[in-house]
Automatic annotation (TrEMBL):
Species of the source: Candidatus Proximibacter danicus
GO MF, one example: ribonuclease inhibitor activity
Residues the record lists as binding substrate: 79-82, 101
Name of the protein described by the UniProt record: 4-hydroxy-4-methyl-2-oxoglutarate aldolase
PANTHER family: 4-HYDROXY-4-METHYL-2-OXOGLUTARATE ALDOLASE 3-RELATED
EC number(s) recorded for this UniProt protein: 4.1.1.112, 4.1.3.17
Length: 163
């Protein structure tokens, strides 16, 4: 499935009004997959990536994990081992409102990754956080079950599939 986010904006904003939401241009692109899309699964956590491992251990076919890490720049929430796990279990991609690490290795893995930046330090692991609730960052609310589209031009969210 190929798409361009500018084309999706042009096509669906006119037809659907406010159902296509554009995330503020705040993310850097990582991972071997530059274009990705899927149904949203959400996590809300802060400097603890225990729930990320749990989510990536599940079947992720057709899904994108959206992590609201509170925008923390003090540790990484995804590293190469988690990216490998996600790719192995079919996840299309991950959007991290926070940092990742092992970016060079992640760039060689067939998964789409958007994150604020990189940080070499790992997170704590206390199994603290929430799953499957609406999270808001970048001027957009991401709800579980909605759809995310990402490419070189940006990230879009829609309440229904666009492709």
């Amino acid at each position: 499935m190929t798409f361009k986010t500018p084309d999706l904006c042009d096509q669906f904003e006119a037809e659907l009004g406010t159902s296509v939401r554009v995330v503020a241009p705040m993310f850097k692109a990582y991972g071997g997959r530059k274009t990705f899309s899927g149904q949203i699964v959400t996590l809300k956590l802060f400097e603890d990536n225990s729930l990320v491992r749990t989510a990536f251990a599940e079947n992720g076919e057709g899904k994108v994990l959206v992590i609201d890490g509170g925008g923390s720049m003090r540790c990484a929430l995804v590293g190469d081992q988690l990216a490998i796990l996600a790719q192995k279990n079919g996840w299309e991609g991950v959007v991290v409102y926070g940092c990742i690490r092992d970016s060079g290795d992640i760039n060689a893995i067939d998964i789409g990754v958007r994150a604020l930046d990189t940080h070499p330090q790992k997170s704590i692991k206390k199994n603290v956080g929430d799953r499957d609730l609406a999270v808001t960052f970048g001027g957009v609310t991401f709800k579980p079950g909605e759809y995310l589209y990402a490419d070189e031009d940006g990230v879009l969210v829609s309440d229904h599939p666009l492709l």
